[in-house]
Amino acid sequence: MRLDASDLNPEQTYRLMSGIVVPRPIAWISTLSPAGGVNLAPFSCYTFVSNTPPMVGVNIGRKAGVRKDTASNILAHGHFVVNIGDESLLDAIHASAEEHPPEISEAELLGLAVLPGETIATPRLADAPISLECRYHSVTPFGATGAEFFVGEVLRFHIRDGLLQDGKIDTTLLRPVCRIGGPNYASLGPIVTKRAIRQTAKSLMPSETP
Ligand SMILES: Cc1cc2nc3c(=O)[nH]c(=O)nc-3n(C[C@H](O)[C@H](O)[C@H](O)COP(=O)(O)O)c2cc1C
């Protein structure tokens, strides 16, 4: 079967793309609302874009042309937290996608405890095994629906005790969840370990070397 991208409307293209680019990790983003409440929503168009400094990126669409609360709050305050939920938090992750007016705090509504930010004013989720305190870096618009790719620099990593072994996250202990098409999620399947392929060590660009 062949599909021409130009024959598809935004809803059809979204359905297709979100079923093709799978599985997607979920950035569970907390931001401060204009009234100071903790806004919370999941975003699975998410990845990391740099390791030095560490930077993450997330694509935030619009609701009928209007920025989502998360996007408006990031632009207004200049910071946000990417929380990583585990299997035990899946119902709350899903429920936090419900559309609410900006003054409603999804964290409060769902009874999720928060902890104050340490390097930024935005609080993080107390029960998340990992939270990344981020400072807004840039936003790039893409396409005709007003979607925007937000990039933030990670200033502090909060990692639950025991999850970090020799500088690496123990993925089995983390029990991450991912999104597939529609309201469907998956957890970690069997881990298959292959021969390690030697990679040139990560280094700074010559122009950045002190
Ligand atoms: C698991 C999951 C992943 C999602 N990923 C995205 C995404 O990557 N980008 C996006 O714009 N919306 C995504 N959404 C929809 C938003 O979470 C939803 O629009 C939410 O209401 C936004 O909340 P806000 O207005 O408080 O920012 C996702 C929803 C779910 C359930």
From TrEMBL:
<protein>
    <submittedName>
        <fullName>Flavin reductase</fullName>
    </submittedName>
</protein>
<dbReference type="GO" id="GO:0010181">
    <property type="term" value="F:FMN binding"/>
</dbReference>
<comment type="similarity">
    <text>Belongs to the flavoredoxin family.</text>
</comment>
<keyword id="KW-0285">Flavoprotein</keyword>
<dbReference type="Pfam" id="PF01613">
    <property type="entry name" value="Flavin_Reduct"/>
</dbReference>
<keyword id="KW-0288">FMN</keyword>
<feature type="domain" description="Flavin reductase like">
    <location>
        <begin position="19"/>
        <end position="171"/>
    </location>
</feature>
<dbReference type="GO" id="GO:0016646">
    <property type="term" value="F:oxidoreductase activity, acting on the CH-NH group of donors, NAD or NADP as acceptor"/>
</dbReference>
<dbReference type="InterPro" id="IPR002563">
    <property type="entry name" value="Flavin_Rdtase-like_dom"/>
</dbReference>
<dbReference type="InterPro" id="IPR012349">
    <property type="entry name" value="Split_barrel_FMN-bd"/>
</dbReference>
